[in-house]
Amino acid sequence: MDATAAPVRPAALVPTPSASDAPEIRLEGISKVYADGTVGVAELDLTFAAGELTVLVGPSGCGKTTTMKMINRIIEPTTGRVLLDGEDVTRVDADRLRRRIGYVIQNVGLFPHRTVRANVATVPRLLGWDRRTTRARVDELLTTVGLDPAVHGNRYPAQLSGGQRQRAGVARALAADPGVLLMDEPFSAVDPVVRERLQDEFLRLQSSVRKTIVFVTHDIEEAVRLGDRIAIMSAGGHVEQFAPPADLLGRPASPFVADFVGADRGLKRLAVTLIDPADLDHPPVVHAGTTLGEAAAALAGAAGAVVLDGAGRPCGWLPAGRAGGSGTVAAAMRPIEEPVPVSATLKAGLSVLLRQDVDAVPVVDGGSYLGVLTAGTVHATLRRSVASSG
Ligand SMILES: Nc1ncnc2c1ncn2[C@@H]1O[C@H](COP(=O)(O)OP(=O)(O)OP(=O)(O)O)[C@@H](O)[C@H]1O
User: What are the φ/ψ torsions at residue 38 (nearest 5 degrees)?
Assistant: First the structure.
């Protein structure tokens, strides 16, 4: 099986002896001055909301990794505090702290001489879980991340593809059901196609497990795709802007942020802004069974009409030029492919519009027709989303 394999299923079916809720993480005045005097991070205050995926993004050397590693104290802060749900963990036992926090790094860091199962079982073993519970949890998690326990469980990391190793790394980090996951460029070692797939699977997984995730990347595309919130950082761990992706792209707080998110930020916003039913257009509607003569009257000078089938679902578009005369609308209409669901992003809607080379595509909520999406309505939604985020 390759890295483009099985879908992700919801996790945590096997009860986990140490299951913990996802906490809020608060950094208070946290700094790191390295032994040689380098200031990695200076006086940073930042709160990661419980159950959200927050991305730290910024140019090389700005302090992303230092910030993240101070949360599980792989790097000890020079000053400041780390609070998990209000509990100061800056001075608790570091090993115990790390068992509450899953950790995924670039190139995974799997133990090469242990099988995949043994790797995933690392923390449950440290926590003293019994063998049966551990085995069940490990196999469940492998399945969840798209690895077949029977096929991949007894392999060694070198016998997996890059994407499969990355999946095993995620399974290992989730094994003891920690409330927090720290992820340091976890998908950057695989090719772009596999990376996108891993990102999609990971988003689906997160929507069911809802961990508090701190995710480091230097790739703004990845940040926008994954983050509930993004902190854009500059040298010394300075946070230039901390906002949801749509706000960041729509209203960069500084020239640094505008430069970092790129000149095509308008296009990037298409992928993070949902269709808004309030902006849809409402051309005339005709039913497939009506006559073309009746349709001409309904059009009343409009460029065309949306055609609905017997169940009220959009099934075609009747251009004004085809209305009038004898016959039914069904015989003269231009059939449409799948309507666009209202839960889609503007990018997905625009993509259908361009692919079908039409001026308007119908939008549906389940079986109900809501209106049509056009280039103009896309623009209106984008404009309004900026205005309302201010
Ligand atoms: N052990 C160390 N000793 C001295 N300076 C260090 C050490 N580790 C990191 N630094 C410095 O601290 C700063 C922040 O480093 P950090 O690794 O947190 O940046 P980053 O944003 O994660 O970078 P990258 O994207 O390149 O991984 C950099 O200037 C780096 O050179």
Answer: -65, 130
